[in-house]
């Protein structure tokens, strides 16, 4: 039997807002599986967080690079937020993003690409680790391109140009004027930064995620004691609401608070005089989904001082 520790209970409480004893019971029922415990609490109506955001615990930078019909975003992690203000670290993140823009490589392939002075990207990062004295790594990269149109970029609360903690790309396929497309792209990218969509269209939503949500919603509906036919309608209605939460084209545009994003794009196409299609997007938030070991703060300060 999996031991349920105090730390596990604490983490589950932070994620769900449920009571300590409920969290402990959920972890026991789920044999220590955190995600299954979250589902157990939601099914029982004990979780305050219906939609859990990824925990942001890792430090470092998100960088973007763009070149008209293509753009790239990269996340480079470090141990402390002090490193994010280091000029050498910033320069590395920006250059790595530019190399990703040129090559469209995955993380492992990017590490082997030439950087500067004959060294590879990974060799340069290794040298940076030795110089700064912290562990660092390239966590993820993404490139988007269109044959006609633009790929807009946006950095929320930028620490420096093209550097910050939330970077967004949005690809717009169109023959419309590029400068006007950039204006639309920036507005949509700002929406994506705020609304955190998980998929572009309903067809692109992970079927497993939908089934998981349907299972949770069904259990919640059954607790109401209503007839089966009513429960089915309740669940379908809530699934539609789920799509409105996670699908970009189904979301309500944050700029005006009432128009669906799909309609915003359609209206823009009429204004621009040419069809406009969102072909892809990426949203990178620094440290999203990474768990960080809770260190003793006094010991950490003492270690830094020494």
Can you walk me through this structure?
- The protein is an alpha+beta fold and 306 residues long.
- Among the domains are: 1-52, Helicase, Ruva Protein, domain 3, CATH 1.10.8; 59-199 and 265-285, Elongation factor Ts, dimerisation domain (Tetrahydropterin Synthase, Chain A, 2-Layer Sandwich).
- Helix content is 46%, strand content 17%.
- It contains eleven helices and seven strands.
- It has helices at residues 6-16, 20-29, 34-43, 87-103, 107-112, 121-132, 178-195, 207-222, 228-246, 261-272, 297-305, and strands spanning 59-66, 70-78, 137-145, 149-156, 163-164, 166-173, 277-285.
- A four-stranded antiparallel sheet has the order 3-2-1-5.
- It is flat.
- The model is unreliable at 49-57 (pLDDT under 50).
Please report which band the strand proportion falls in: under 5%, 5-15%, 15-25%, 25-35%, 35-45% or over 45%. Answer: 15-25%
Distance between the termini: 42 Å
What does the largest sheet look like? 4 strands, antiparallel
Number of helices: 11
Provide key terms for this protein:
4-stranded antiparallel β-sheet, Tetrahydropterin Synthase, Chain A, 46% helix, alpha+beta, 7 strands, single chain, 11 helices, Helicase, Ruva Protein, domain 3, 3-stranded antiparallel β-sheet, 17% strand, flat, 306 residues
């Amino acid at each position: 039997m999996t031991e349920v520790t105090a730390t596990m209970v604490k983490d589950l409480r932070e994620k769900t807002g449920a009571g300590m004893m409920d969290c402990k019971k959920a972890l026991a029922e789920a044999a220590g599986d955190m995600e299954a415990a979250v589902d157990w609490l939601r099914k029982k109506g004990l979780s305050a967080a219906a939609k859990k955001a990824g925990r942001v615990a890792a430090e470092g930078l998100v960088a973007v690079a763009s070149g008209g019909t293509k753009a790239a975003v990269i996340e480079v992690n470090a141990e402390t937020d002090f490193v994010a203000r280091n000029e050498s670290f910033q320069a590395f993140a920006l250059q790595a993003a530019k190399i990703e823009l040129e090559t469209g490589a995955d993380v492992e392939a990017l590490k082997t690409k030439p950087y500067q002075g004959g060294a590879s990207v990974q060799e340069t990062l290794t040298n940076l680790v030795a110089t700064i004295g912290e562990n660092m790594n390239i966590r993820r990269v993404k490139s988007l391109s269109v044959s006609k149109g633009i790929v807009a970029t946006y950095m929320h609360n930028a620490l420096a140009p093209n550097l910050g903690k939330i970077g967004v790309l949005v690809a717009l396929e169109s023959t419309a004027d590029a400068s006007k497309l950039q204006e639309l792209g920036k507005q949509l990218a700002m929406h994506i930064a705020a609304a955190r969509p998980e998929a572009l269209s309903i067809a692109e939503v992970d079927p497993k995620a939908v089934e998981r949500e349907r299972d949770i919603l069904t259990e919640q509906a059954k607790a109401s004691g209503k007839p089966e036919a009513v429960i089915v309608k309740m669940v379908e209605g809530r699934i539609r609401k789920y799509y409105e939460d996670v699908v970009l084209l189904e979301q309500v545009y944050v700029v005006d608070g009432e128009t669906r994003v799909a309609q915003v794009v359609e209206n823009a196409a009429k204004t621009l005089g040419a069809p406009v299609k969102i072909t892809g997007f990426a949203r990178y938030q620094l440290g999203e989904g990474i768990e960080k070991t809770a260190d003793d703060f006094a010991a950490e300060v003492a270690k830094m001082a020494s």
